Amino acid sequence: MLTAINHHIINLTMKKETLFVAFATQKGGMGKTAITVLTASYLHYTKGYHVAVIDCDYPQHSIVEMRKRDTELVMKDDYFKGLAYRQFSTLGIKAYPVKECTLDMAIPTAMKMTEQSEKHYDIIFFDLPGTLNTPGVIRTLAAMDYLFTPVSADRLVLESTLQYAIMLTENLIAPRKGNIKGLYLFWNMVDGREKTPLYGAYEKAIAELDVSILKTFLPDSKRFRKEVSDERKTVFRSTLFPVDKMLLKGSHIAELVNEICQILHLDSNGK
Ligand SMILES: Nc1ncnc2c1ncn2[C@@H]1O[C@H](COP(=O)(O)OP(=O)(O)OP(=O)(O)O)[C@@H](O)[C@H]1O
Ligand SMILES: [Mg+2]
Asked: CB burial class (10 A; 0-12, 13-18, 19+) of residue 177?
């Protein structure tokens, strides 16, 4: 693994002001894609930052597919057509780009976007494949500025996630091979309103391993599984619209984004 890492580290001396961020974990189904979309949409549509998303999680390309579904809904439903018109024409907020590409092309695509686009991007989010065995995944992870890792309070999930965090810390972050300035775990799918004492015990173990964990946790909530549809006129997980104010309450998305903004040294009041 180490030699693979050494061989694959790209030259990251290029200066860039756009932050590269990924919700990354080796464990499947932890909420990487859903949280990428919720965070990107909140920062872009609610806070006014300019974001882009690069979806290189082959073969699902879940965010690209989500954007297609969101766009089709706007085309066929008058309510969402009106909402889109108001947002794009009246308020002047355009949709953020969602680019599909192969893992190898993720960083070149992002670099091209930062260098050639007339618009400045504050953040580019990457939805990457989970497994570190995918060729090129370590090299791409090394090019991120920050990594945020969703984890659930399941012993096996936590153990493998900690192994993942320690592997990246020891091989990329501590020896400064790449751009990563920080890796932060955070709890997702927390059952109930409050964290149980079990979380405290886990957090103690996490701290002993020198792994950082965010204060904000995301609750287990049905709204995370729902997409916008023509029956429901409230928006939660969408690539085209901000989260509905009622659904935002209790989702902890605003709190998560604020904590991430602090780490990224971005003004949490927005642009
Ligand atoms: N806090 C939450 N509460 C309830 N459901 C959630 C929560 N976070 C994510 N989910 C749901 O869990 C499922 C898996 O999430 P998602 O697809 O985002 O995970 P992923 O890490 O991208 O998975 P994959 O490994 O397949 O790429 C989705 O149906 C998503 O809506
Ligand atoms: Mg996914």
From this structure: middle
